[in-house]
């Protein structure tokens, strides 16, 4: 683990016994850092260029996590005609789903919600069990494929580009994530906050009073499905609360497959 990542782990991690346990995520993490305004400006420029280039072919794929709430706020604040969509896996926390009416009220924006195929979920639960994800990595990934990957495919069907909240600081596996890349089918993928720090994200949330998932106040920096997310403790890294029972280092569900970006330089469709 690098010094930067080690420092991040320390700043993110608290146990319930910590003196800071009753503090909000904003009070714990938000702080102004050098270059913040420039990073915001660069993100806005990326979103503007992408909106102009891809038009209705562009969508923000929001996890409803704090990074994605920043992006939604930027889209609304700068009046960019970008659709916002999310996945309702059927196993999300109530606190996550509570953001949908908040977004609609705050931004006058209807979030498009994509859910898994009902029969596929019912059959998986009947055959594998309600909490099969704990039984093996293969079953967990099968659950993710049904509840997340398939509906994501429908979300992105007909789209030429999508926006995510991936950041380099989130994990070792994401340490080199670029601002612009191709996804596994060759669609342009824009990681609008790639260079932002955790402090940047929360400073923006504080500055513009952006709504966020209440679970972030309970030491959950990375929030997924309820059975697969827990609070982190002192010394644990950013994504250790996701699929914590698994031993492999790269804690991913398949939404963000790693792939080569060699062709990006040759793609005239990629935004500047």
From TrEMBL:
Q: Where in the cell is it found?
A: Cytoplasm
Which top-level group of life is the source organism from? Bacteria
Q: What does the record give as its pathway?
A: Sulfur metabolism; hydrogen sulfide biosynthesis; sulfite from sulfate
Q: Which InterPro entries would you find in this protein's record? A: APS_reductase (IPR011798), PAPS/APS_Rdtase (IPR004511), PAPS_reduct_dom (IPR002500), Rossmann-like_a/b/a_fold (IPR014729)
Q: Which Gene3D superfamilies match?
A: HUPs
Q: What keywords were assigned to this record?
A: Cytoplasm, Iron, Iron-sulfur, Metal-binding, Oxidoreductase
Q: What is its main location?
A: cytoplasm
Does the keyword Magnesium feature in the UniProt annotation? no
Cofactors (names): [4Fe-4S] cluster
Q: What is its EC number?
A: 1.8.4.10
| GO MF | phosphoadenylyl-sulfate reductase (thioredoxin) activity
Looking at the record, the residues that make up the Phosphoadenosine phosphosulphate reductase domain are 58-231
**Active site (UniProt):** 253
Question: Reaction catalysed?
Answer: [thioredoxin]-disulfide + sulfite + AMP + 2 H(+) = adenosine 5'-phosphosulfate + [thioredoxin]-dithiol
> Could you say which residues bind [4Fe-4S] cluster here?
143-144, 225, 228
> Bound how, and how many: what does the cofactor note say?
Binds 1 [4Fe-4S] cluster per subunit.
Keyword Iron-sulfur set for record? yes
As for what it does, the entry says: Catalyzes the formation of sulfite from adenosine 5'-phosphosulfate (APS) using thioredoxin as an electron donor.
Query: Can you say what this protein is called?
Result: Adenosine 5'-phosphosulfate reductase
The organism is Roseateles koreensis
């Amino acid at each position: 683990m690098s010094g930067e990542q080690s420092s991040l782990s320390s700043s993110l991690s608290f146990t319930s016994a910590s003196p800071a346990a009753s503090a909000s995520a904003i009070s714990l993490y938000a702080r102004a850092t050098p270059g913040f305004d420039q990073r915001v400006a660069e993100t806005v420029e990326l979103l503007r260029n992408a909106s102009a280039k891809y038009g209705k072919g562009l969508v923000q794929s929001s996890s409803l996590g704090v990074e994605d709430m920043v992006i939604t706020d930027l889209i609304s604040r700068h009046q960019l005609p970008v659709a916002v969509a999310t996945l309702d896996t059927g196993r999300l926390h109530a606190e996550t789903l509570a953001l949908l009416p908040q977004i609609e009220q705050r931004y006058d924006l209807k979030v498009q919600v994509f859910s898994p195929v009902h029969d596929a979920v019912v059959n998986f639960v009947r055959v594998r069990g309600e909490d099969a994800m704990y039984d093996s990595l293969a079953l967990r990934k099968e659950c993710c494929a049904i509840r997340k990957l398939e509906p994501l495919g429908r979300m992105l069907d007909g789209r030429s580009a999508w926006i995510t909240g991936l950041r380099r600081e989130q994990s070792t596996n994401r340490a080199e994530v670029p601002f612009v890349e191709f996804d596994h089918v060759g669609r342009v993928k824009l990681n609008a906050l790639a260079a932002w720090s955790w402090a940047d994200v929360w400073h923006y949330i504080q500055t513009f009073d952006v709504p966020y998932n209440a679970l972030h106040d309970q030491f959950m920096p990375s929030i997924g499905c309820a059975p697969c997310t827990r609070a982190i403790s002192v010394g644990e890294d950013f994504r250790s609360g996701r699929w914590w029972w698994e031993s492999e280092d790269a804690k991913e569900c398949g939404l963000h497959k790693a792939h080569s970006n060699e062709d990006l330089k040759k793609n005239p469709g990629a935004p500047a």
